[in-house]
Amino acid sequence: MKKLAFIFLSIVLVIVIACDSRTYDEVSDNTPITVEVVRYQQEIKPIIDANCVGCHSPGGPASFQPLTNYEQVRNNISGILNRIQRPNGDGLKMPQGGSLSANQINLFIKWQADGFVEN
What we know:
It contains six helices and no strands. By secondary structure, it is an all-alpha fold.
């Protein structure tokens, strides 16, 4: 029984140590947006491709919510903004296991404010 408790505590300790505990400010670059109009093809799609489509595509664990094209991303912007702006440690934060930079998050916000320009 003591051996089982020791193994359990060891596993918990490894999980706790392995968790990312950096603050949002530490992982963001706070670079101001320099583009006049944010466009899906130039600014948003590269972020989605690098951080989202691994899960949010056919065959991925989040294939029920694909983000592989302009319409899917535009139609899900509220959910995307909700998830990418959550604090670290929140189980609903996206992307899982990481965080977008403040600049990347601001690009999504400005893209919405600019009227979802595609090209």
